[in-house]
Amino acid sequence: MPGATTDTVGLEVEPNSFVIKRGSSILNKELLDKMLGKNPKKYAGGGTVPIIATPQERIATPEEVDMYGLSVFRAINNS
Question: Would you say 11 and 48 are in contact if contact means Cβ atoms under 8 Å apart?
């Protein structure tokens, strides 16, 4: 797949968030846009965890993981 494939994007995410890997994010873009929205989330200060992500990876908040279920995000990540 074209584009960066290494972790270069510094983010702060909520504990228990789920990172959908780049290839799965690209493959399932339409589904993830419906589930998570098209715009990246902006997190409030405090209670976050620093991570380094790959461009085009998607982040599901803990609330989204609860809503759809961890097994759904694991299945997407394994597609």
Answer: no
Instruction: Tally DSSP H helices, then E strands, for the chain.
Output: 4, 4
Query: Which residues on adjacent β-strands are paired with residue 13?
Result: 49
First to last CA, the chain: 15
pTM score over 0.90: no
Give me the pLDDT at residue 11, please. 82
Structure-token match 């799965």, residue found: 24
- Nearest one of 18, 17, 2 to 55, comparing CA atoms: 2
List pLDDT tens digits, range 14-49.
888 898 998 999 999 999 999 988 776 655 556 788
With CA atoms as reference, report the closest residue to 58 among 26, 28, 20: 20
CB 55 within 8 A of CB 3: yes
Evaluate whether 4 touches 50 at the Cβ level (below 8 Å): no
